[in-house]
Write a structure and sequence with these properties.
By secondary structure, this protein is an all-alpha fold. It is built from five helices and no strands.
Length: 140
């Protein structure tokens, strides 16, 4: 006899395994701090490359202005401004990435726990009829 509850649990587990399992199982391999640190370092690298590309484009567009500041004092002032902007952008992106990846880790871990619980419930539902049948056989 088909049990509708078992079918629902199996469908739920199957849908999860198809759609979410790969990403969330990779997340489950890390401790929270390791996961957040890894993605924060990735964010640092991407922001740095993006900022350098932006500075290069700005310098190409304002090349005459850069060349007119040929004194050391003028170039140091320009470099100071660039470093200040870089620090502001970097801190903003790192704070955002810390929040995003901490929340993402918590959500994925919760989903993994729910998936594991679904599998346990499904296994118990298959064990329950077997133990009942084995008890009936012992009575005979």
């Amino acid at each position: 006899m088909l049990d509708p509850e078992k079918i629902k649990q199996m469908t739920r587990a199957s849908l999860y395994a198809e759609k979410q399992q790969r990403k969330e199982l990779r997340t489950g391999q890390y401790f929270r701090d390791d996961y957040v640190a890894l993605h924060t370092v990735q964010t640092l690298i991407v922001v740095t490359v993006g900022f350098l590309a932006g500075v290069a484009m700005w310098m190409a567009y304002h090349w005459e202005e850069v060349l007119t500041q040929t004194t050391i004092h003028g170039l140091l002032g320009l470099a100071g401004k660039i470093l200040l902007y870089y620090a502001i952008v970097l801190v903003a992106y790192l704070m955002i990435s810390l929040i995003v990846y901490t929340l993402r880790y918590r959500i994925r871990r919760r989903h993994l726990r729910e998936y594991a619980q679904t599998l346990k419930d499904l296994a118990r539902s298959y064990e329950a009829p077997e133990t009942a049948e084995s008890g009936k056989e012992k009575e005979k």
